[in-house]
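Private note to self, pasted from the team thread so I don't lose it. Backbone tokens:
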């Protein structure tokens, strides 16, 4: 039987972002392409992040069981998360989490 301490140690070794990507690539191969087809109601001069980035951020928020967009912003705006999510979308420069500023406008218009 595995003890709680052993279970916590094993969980430290798991790369959850990698596991999420494997699941996405296996079950939802065209998810990014599908998200790109969604109309963007925002004025073009206000767009910093593309539609699929904002929608994937909301999906990531829910997958991480974060309760609010503010909590998402606080958790994702950590150096390691910024690097990982930037790699996920192939963005070399990703200064901070776009969820609060951009997706609120996108999702509520």
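Design output:
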């Amino acid at each position: 039987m595995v003890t709680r301490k052993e279970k916590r140690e094993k969980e430290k070794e798991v790369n959850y972002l990698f596991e999420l990507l494997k699941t996405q690539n296996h079950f939802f191969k065209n998810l990014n392409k599908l998200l790109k087809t969604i109309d963007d109601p925002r004025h073009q001069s206000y767009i910093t992040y593309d539609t699929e980035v904002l929608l994937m951020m909301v999906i990531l928020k829910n997958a991480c069981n974060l309760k609010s967009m503010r909590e998402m912003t606080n958790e994702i705006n950590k150096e390691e998360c910024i690097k990982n999510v930037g790699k996920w979308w192939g963005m070399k420069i990703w200064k901070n989490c776009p969820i609060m500023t951009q997706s609120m406008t996108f999702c509520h218009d």
